[in-house]
């Protein structure tokens, strides 16, 4: 262990996305290749001696307890657990996290010693995996609020690959088999009231972990919500969602030393008539079983919306993936344009 093919694959995957900045400790991890990477895993991360590293992925992650802090992580999947090697900036991002991360090594901050937090989710504790719309992200759920993590891959290929690898690793787990299903009689089978609401597609793995995929209704709900935000300008039947993609909105900061660009996570939705940016809650929905109250914010909150017919031109950057697009709209102050977002604060 491990095979040459696996070693090469993990080395290829060990690349930080170019548009995201990470701390020195994670830069060090990203510089490791082949054998050095496997030895680093066994020497610093692995919890038991005989576990095997099967997959590596770089992704932004969100925790259920800190839903507003998106942090870069190196996600390592082994035959025993999923490890999230976190950027150390996460520790200082929210003062309410002191109970979540018991950090005792604060005296290391000013030395040349770089500390990373590693969040461990054991495969035996895994209960379900929710795959987001168009495989742009997935949420891993354990047995408590501390064990819910969303990986914002923003890439269907990365999501698909990770899910495949996770299923393969879960197949190795020895769990007690599920009890035999009880044979239902005719009356209970056909007499139950059908609510008419279609459940999400569920695949129950042999390890009893649920893999839950979105259904068509979710797109329908999203189309309805988008139509509502359009202030009745378009009739719902003709509204089609053409594109749903997790992206970043670039806010250029000119006052800073190097004219830096701040990246704000947004959900971009394109319909046949409009272009929308939403702030989406990727971690709270669907509600975990232990949740006693609904989340404080809606799943989708409108950040901006423009009509396609007001689009003047699209500027494309020539850099490699991820591509930067600039949408230039005609600044027409017309009443039938989308309402000013500030109006929401002052009632009708």
TrEMBL record:
Keywords: Cytoplasm
Keyword check for ATP-binding: no
Domain of life: Eukaryota
Cellular compartments per GO CC: endosome membrane
InterPro entries named among the record's database cross-references: PH_domain-containing_M2, PH_NISCH_C, PH_PLEKHM2
Database matches in Pfam families: PH_NISCH_C, PH_PLEKHM2
Gene Ontology BP term (one): regulation of protein localization
Nischarin C-terminal PH domain span: 241-347
Occurrences of domain PLEKHM2 PH (ranges): 114-178
Location of this chain's protein in the cell: Cytoplasm
GO MF assignments: kinesin binding
Protein name (database record): NISCH protein
Gene: Nisch_1
